[in-house]
């Protein structure tokens, strides 16, 4: 496990996340040669192992890119702030071998690839659900994949599909968008009627994974 991944694990496991604010601030200045420590004035944030590591890594990583990554990490960690330390510690200690590598080892890569902070927030909600046994490992991996590919601009339409639109009603979304949600497993696509006499287009239905996802992110 590399140093950055280990520091993220330590932040999840043992940090006083209850003291976190939901933001590093809205600072956005192109200081490519300035260290991350100059962006962060909050001493609570500076005590997080992952922030300490990002501040200390070689200069090529410093500046605005590290600021953006730190923001993603904090959006993620903020979702875990209400989980007691002992619960987080127990969860980390019970992870072993390949499973630990897949869940913790890939987490920093996942956060780093997020193109919007909202995705890192959603990832935090998924991780919280995993810690609390509200989803299993496979569901976590599937939903992590879905969040990474999702167009966040249409998240409200997915939520409406599950909460506001009566079952069996044709949703007000383009076929392309519906197929995209189907591709990432959050909507079930029923093509059984296509090509049949008197049939029509595909039928879009709710699915268990989509139901769990919407329930998790709307809490």
Structural class: mainly alpha
**Biggest β-sheet, characterized?**
2 strands, antiparallel
Q: What proportion of the residues is helical, as a percent range?
A: 55-70%
Low-pLDDT segments, ≥5 res = 25-35
Q: Compute the average pLDDT.
A: 82
Assign an overall shape: elongated
Report the span from N to C terminus.
33 Å
Count the beta strands: 2
Number of helices: 12
Polypeptide structure, described:
Helix 1 crosses helix 5 and helix 4 runs parallel beside helix 8 (117-131). This protein has helices spanning 3-14, 43-46, 49-56, 64-78, 85-94, 97-105, 107-113, 117-131, 137-149, 155-163, 175-183, 208-217, and strands at 188-190, 203-205. The two termini are 33 Å apart. It is elongated and about 60 Å long. The longest helix has 15 residues, at 64-78. Strands 1-2 form a two-stranded antiparallel ribbon. Mean pLDDT is 82; it is low at 25-35. 55% of the residues lie in helices and 3% in strands. By secondary structure, it is mostly helical.
Features:
219 residues; elongated; mainly alpha; 55% helix; two-stranded antiparallel sheet
Write a compact overview of the structure shown.
This protein has helices spanning 3-14, 43-46, 49-56, 64-78, 85-94, 97-105, 107-113, 117-131, 137-149, 155-163, 175-183, 208-217, and strands at 188-190, 203-205. The protein is mainly α.
């Amino acid at each position: 496990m590399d140093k950055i991944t280990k520091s993220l694990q330590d932040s999840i496991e043992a940090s006083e996340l209850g003291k976190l604010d939901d933001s590093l601030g809205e600072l956005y200045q192109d200081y490519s040669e300035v260290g991350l420590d100059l962006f962060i004035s909050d001493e609570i944030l500076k005590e997080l192992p992952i922030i300490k590591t990002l501040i200390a890594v070689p200069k090529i990583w410093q500046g605005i890119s590290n600021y953006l990554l730190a923001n993603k990490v904090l959006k993620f960690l903020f979702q875990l702030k209400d989980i007691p330390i002992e619960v987080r510690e127990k969860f980390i200690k019970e992870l072993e071998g390949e499973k630990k590598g897949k869940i913790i080892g890939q987490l920093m890569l996942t956060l780093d690839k997020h193109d919007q902070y909202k995705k890192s927030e959603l990832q935090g909600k998924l991780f919280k659900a995993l810690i609390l046994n509200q989803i299993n490992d496979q569901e976590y991996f599937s939903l992590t994949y879905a969040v990474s590919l999702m167009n966040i601009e249409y998240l409200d339409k997915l939520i409406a599909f599950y909460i506001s639109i009566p079952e069996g009603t044709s949703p007000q979304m383009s076929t392309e968008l519906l197929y995209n949600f189907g591709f990432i497993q959050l909507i079930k696509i029923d093509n059984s009627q296509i090509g049949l006499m008197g049939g029509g287009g595909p039928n879009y239905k709710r699915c268990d994974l989509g139901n769990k996802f919407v329930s998790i992110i709307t809490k």
